[in-house]
Structures are given as C-alpha cells and as structure tokens.
Task: structure prediction
Amino acid sequence: MDIFCKIASGEVGKDFIYEDEELMVFEDIHPEKPVHLLIVPKKHVVDFIDVEDHSLFQKIMKVAQKMVKEKGLVGKGYRLKVNGGGHQLVDHLHFHLIGPMEKAK
Ligand code: 5GP
Result:
C-alpha cells in the first residue's frame, strides 16, 4: 500500500489542512516553498492519465482555489503541478500547490 493510501485509511496519522469524503490536503514533508500542500484523492488512483471521472478534477481545482485563498497566495505567485507518467515519487495521484513564487521572467 502506498503512503497516501496509508494516510487516507488513518494507518499513518496526518494533520489535514482540508478534508472531505473524497479529498485530503496536507503539507508536503519536504516543502519547496513556505506553502507546499498536497491535494490528494483518498481513492487510489495511480496516475493523472488514469482519471476517467473528470468531476474529480473539478473537485480538486475547487479545493485548490480554496487553498490559494486560505494560504494567502492570491496575487503572491503560486504553482499547481502534477507529476505523472513515472516522473512521480509516489504512485498515487496528487497535485502540489506551491508558493509564494517569484514573478516569471
Ligand atoms: P511526486 O514526485 O510524487 O509528485 O511528489 C511526492 C511528494 O510527496 C514529494 O514532494 C514528497 O516530499 C512528498 N511525500 C512523500 N512521502 C510523504 C509523507 O509521508 N508525508 C508527506 N506529508 N509528504 C510526503
């Protein structure tokens, strides 16, 4: 079982920044910036390309917007990213929300 499944099941304890029936949000253990959140479906999905129910993306984006606001990142520069196709460290779909980021040149 991957680490995010263990967090979803409660086997590994984690403080959630946000949680609902489908999603959980928690801080990345190795933050790249002062804000580095992982937005993760509780259900096991390996890769971005595997998602067939696109309403999941709508829910993730809605929560991402909420986190941008709640973490004070509006107008501060942020990045929302997903690694896939084998580039990911953890084989369980997750979006990173990272900021503040400097203005792109
Ligand atoms: P990926 O490269 O798969 O997109 O990124 C996985 C992310 O999960 C990494 O940024 C890594 O620091 C984070 N991570 C890995 N294991 C844990 C963990 O046990 N707890 C938390 N909070 N983050 C983790």
Summary: The domain at 3-99 is CATH 3.30.428.10 (HIT family, subunit A). Residues 6 and 12 are 5 Å apart (CA to CA).
